[in-house]
User: Which sequence fits this backbone?
């Protein structure tokens, strides 16, 4: 989560410096980083709580064409 926020913050700061707009892109990209980090954390929590979620079902394994 911290990586997403810091990366977006750096991009926003760079755009503000390049385009001479004070906090506009910094704030916008920081919000996007927080949302992106939150989605990542949510997915990781769901994977821990329901480990079968990302595995193919038995029917999908039987019909995968190998064998």
Assistant:
């Amino acid at each position: 989560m911290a990586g997403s926020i810091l990366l977006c913050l750096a991009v926003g700061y760079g755009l503000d410096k390049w385009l001479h707009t004070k906090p506009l892109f910094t704030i916008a990209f920081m919000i996007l980083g927080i949302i992106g980090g939150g989605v990542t954390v949510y997915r990781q929590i769901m994977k821990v709580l329901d480990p079968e979620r990302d595995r193919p079902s038995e029917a999908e394994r039987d019909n995968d064409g190998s064998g």
Remarks:
- The chain has a mean pLDDT of 87.
- The first helix runs from residue 2 to 19.
- Residues 3 and 33 are 8 Å apart (CA to CA).
